[in-house]
């Protein structure tokens, strides 16, 4: 194999590059004038640096937080499905290293001190102390699965009465009593809150270990603000411990309010919040707490049955400086005009609201934060399609990151190289900026497939084909403002597939996948996705590698594209393609 800047190229790829370097029609910006060796180095360096064919996207941090899209995770702590998978701090490490900027923590009361380990124990010890035998786990899982198939609500157990005595309303901030000696303070070994998916067989992880992991990994790949979305199911005493742990672990990284605050306090700029942690926690005004006592619901609809949410203590509520989570009942409610509020809607509730109030929803999201998350019946940790939600202005589209799928590929393309925050197109930002109309253009796209390498081990001969999809607005979304198929669509609006060739280093013979005369797209919110597949008999085809690009960031020219694997990281395979992008209008 020939080598270019450390990337070993097969003879097939090298021959294509040599031939194309001699063609006069190739853009000078694509082929350096110094010759073939510089072209090879240019292609290899782009690939090694993670360019992935994407044009750079500088981040303008001068706008308020609500003017950006944010790479976000749902039920971050889970390593698998929503019913019986294990909670782990590794899940937080993984998403943070992939650039996620909004993580979720569902917090529940810890075990009693007599049965829980000390706070200094590591995660493995905690897991062992609370686990059951393999046999009993298997029986519990089978029983839960059977119940769920009949009815989702069958998974919920009643909350113990002693846990609910003082938990009669949600989101209401209660004044603290500094002199009060709470139970955990008077015990030598105290219990600490746990993180788990309530009323399922998922295995917990300690809240402290999650906070420590966030402290250690929050700034590994990005210095952009990190939002920590708290779902509180704990007693007052456990909330006090939560506040203590967060201050202990995150210290000066916690966002603090300005000297003078009110309900009209404006959101800060993105730039001013670099390396800050923003806590998203339930909030309610005193008037609302009194008039709508007990109305608040869990943001995760799969945990709503038979849950009586606890009041939020004052010290915990104060941490929600710029991300105050408010129950959504309509766009006319008083909280909808508080600059620091954030509404969280399940995909079902969002779609229902969209059908009735599409204009109001879009206008709200020009100025204020909104979060959308997968419906509770997605027990396999599948995902909604994030693109339509972004096109309706939702800043935080929370996704399950456990397994790579279409949604995570689009998310990867949306936030590639940005640090996890992307400025919304002008028409999707504050009306005070001019209220520009959504810019739509026409697209001609041609992707000429040349060759690939490293798709499989040396002793395998996969039957390789490439599937190319355009993720753009459907007619129903453009004309009526609705999300097609209730958000169940799994593929792009337009699709092409190459013929099948055999081998780990296939030659595609310059087959071209073309999309001509595509009308009325928004390039910043439209995507092209390529999947390299193994055509397998009698079962689902295997994914050999993939790449995905936002259309406004897709480069024209010769591209040596590193492919990614099922962990969303480069898997060592490459595809050589000649790309032509023409955007008109």
Automatic annotation (TrEMBL):
Q: What is this protein called?
A: Phosphoinositide phospholipase C
Its EC number(s): 3.1.4.11
Gene Ontology MF term list: phosphatidylinositol-4,5-bisphosphate phospholipase C activity
**According to its UniProt record, which reaction does this protein catalyse?**
a 1,2-diacyl-sn-glycero-3-phospho-(1D-myo-inositol-4,5-bisphosphate) + H2O = 1D-myo-inositol 1,4,5-trisphosphate + a 1,2-diacyl-sn-glycerol + H(+)
Q: Where is this region: Disordered?
A: 111-140, 159-186, 288-307
Q: Domain PI-PLC Y-box: where?
A: 316-429
PANTHER family tied to this protein: PHOSPHOINOSITIDE PHOSPHOLIPASE C, PHOSPHOINOSITIDE-SPECIFIC PHOSPHOLIPASE C FAMILY PROTEIN
Which InterPro entries does the annotation name?
Answer: C2_dom, C2_domain_sf, PI-PLC_fam, PLC-like_Pdiesterase_TIM-brl, PLipase_C_PInositol-sp_X_dom, PLipase_C_Pinositol-sp_Y
Top-level EC class, please?
Answer: hydrolase
Q: Which Gene3D superfamilies match?
A: C2 domain (2.60.40.150), Phosphatidylinositol (PI) phosphodiesterase (3.20.20.190)
Q: Main role? A: The production of the second messenger molecules diacylglycerol (DAG) and inositol 1,4,5-trisphosphate (IP3) is mediated by activated phosphatidylinositol-specific phospholipase C enzymes.
> What are its GO biological-process terms?
lipid catabolic process; phosphatidylinositol-mediated signaling; release of sequestered calcium ion into cytosol
Lineage of origin: Eukaryota, Fungi, Dikarya, Ascomycota, Pezizomycotina
Among the Pfam families in the record, one is: PI-PLC-X
The C2 domain sits at: 423-565
Keyword match Hydrolase: yes
Which CDD domains does the record associate with it?
C2_PLC_like, PI-PLC1c_yeast
Say if the entry is tagged with keyword S-adenosyl-L-methionine.
no
Q: Which UniProt keywords apply?
A: Hydrolase, Lipid degradation, Lipid metabolism, Transducer
């Amino acid at each position: 194999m020939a080598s270019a800047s450390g990337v070993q190229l097969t003879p097939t790829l090298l021959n294509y590059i040599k031939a194309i370097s001699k063609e006069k029609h190739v853009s000078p910006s694509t082929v350096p004038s110094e010759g073939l060796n510089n072209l090879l180095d240019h292609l290899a360096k782009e690939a090694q640096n993670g360019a992935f064919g994407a044009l750079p996207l500088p981040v303008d941090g001068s706008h308020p937080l609500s003017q950006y899209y944010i790479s976000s995770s749902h039920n971050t702590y889970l390593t698998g499905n929503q019913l019986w998978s294990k909670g782990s701090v590794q899940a937080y490490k993984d998403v943070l290293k992939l650039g996620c900027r909004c993580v979720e923590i569902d917090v529940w009361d810890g075990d009693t001190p007599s049965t829980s380990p000390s706070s200094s124990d590591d995660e493995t010890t905690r897991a062992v102390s609370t686990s059951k035998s393999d046999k009993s786990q298997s029986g519990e899982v089978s029983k839960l699965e059977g119940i769920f198939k009949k009815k989702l609500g069958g998974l919920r157990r009643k909350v113990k009465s002693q846990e609910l005595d003082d938990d009669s309303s949600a989101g209401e901030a209660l004044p603290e009593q500094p002199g009060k000696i709470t139970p955990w303070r008077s015990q030598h070994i105290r219990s600490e809150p746990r993180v788990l998916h309530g009323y399922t067989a998922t295995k917990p992880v300690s809240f402290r270990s999650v906070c420590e992991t966030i402290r250690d990994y929050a700034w590994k790949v990005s210095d952009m603000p990190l939002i920590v979305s708290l779902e509180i199911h704990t007693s007052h005493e456990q909330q006090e411990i939560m506040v203590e742990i967060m201050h202990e672990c995150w210290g000066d990284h916690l966002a603090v309010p300005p000297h003078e605050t009110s309900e009209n306090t404006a959101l800060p700029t993105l730039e001013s919040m670099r390396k800050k942690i923003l806590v998203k926690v339930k909030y309610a005004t005193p008037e609302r707490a009194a008039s709508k006592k007990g109305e608040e619901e869990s943001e995760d609809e799969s945990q709503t049955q038979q849950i009586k949410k606890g009041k939020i203590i004052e010290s915990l509520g104060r941490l929600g400086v710029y991300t105050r989570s408010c129950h959504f009942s309509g766009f006319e409610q008083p909280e909808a005009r508080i600059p620091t509020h954030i509404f969280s809607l399940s995909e079902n509730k969002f779609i229902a609201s969209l059908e009735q109030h599409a204009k109001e929803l879009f206008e709200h999201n020009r100025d204020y934060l909104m979060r959308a998350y997968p419906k509770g019946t997605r027990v396999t940790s599948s995902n909604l399609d994030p693109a339509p939600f972004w096109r309706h202005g939702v800043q935080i589209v929370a996704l399950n990151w456990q397994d790579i799928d279409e949604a995570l590929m689009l998310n990867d393309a949306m936030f590639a190289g940005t640090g996890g925050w992307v400025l919304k197109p002008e028409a999707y930002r504050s009306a005070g900026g001019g209220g520009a109309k959504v810019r739509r253009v026409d697209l001609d796209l041609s992707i000429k497939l040349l060759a690939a390498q490293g798709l499989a081990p040396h002793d395998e001969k996969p039957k390789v084909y490439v599937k190319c999809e355009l993720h753009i607005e459907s007619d129903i979304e453009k004309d009526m403002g609705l999300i097609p198929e209730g958000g169940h669509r799994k593929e792009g609006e337009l699709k092409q597939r190459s013929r099948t060739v055999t081998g780990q280093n296939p030659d595609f013979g310059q087959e071209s996948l073309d999309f001509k005369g595509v009308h009325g797209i928004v390039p910043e919110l439209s995507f092209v996705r390529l999947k390299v597949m193994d055509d397998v008999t009698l079962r689902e085809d295997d994914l050999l590698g993939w790449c995905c690009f936002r259309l406004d960031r897709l480069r024209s020219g010769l591209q040596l594209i590193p492919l990614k694997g099922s962990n969303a990281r480069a898997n060592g395979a490459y595809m050589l393609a000649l790309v032509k992008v023409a955007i008109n209008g």
